[in-house]
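The instructor's notes for this session suggest beginning with a concrete chain rather than abstract definitions. Hand out the sequence below and ask the class to guess, before any prediction is shown, which regions might be ordered.
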Amino acid sequence: HRVVGKAMPGAPHAVWLVMDATTGQNALQQARAFKDAVKVTGIILAKLDSSARGGMVFAIQNELDLPILFAGLGEKPEDLQPFDPDKFIEGILSV
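After discussion, reveal the predicted structure:
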């Protein structure tokens, strides 16, 4: 925060926690530790294109009160899409 704040007054404007969708039950502990260390403002869920379910992100969102902002659906920059909770739930339930 201090380094970027020197380069750009008021920065950082956002701090995002990027969570791997394949992360299991310890995802909440990891997110909690990260939030304790820095002022996180949102979550990006990566690797959602694999067989990962990513349901842990809802527990993180609920407990830590962080919005899920984007979902990584592939390897290219254009594969980073705004998070659609309805589509995400459909994907989890369509197994």
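Then share the key points. The domain at 14-93 is CATH 3.40.50.300 (Rossmann fold). The chain has a mean pLDDT of 85.
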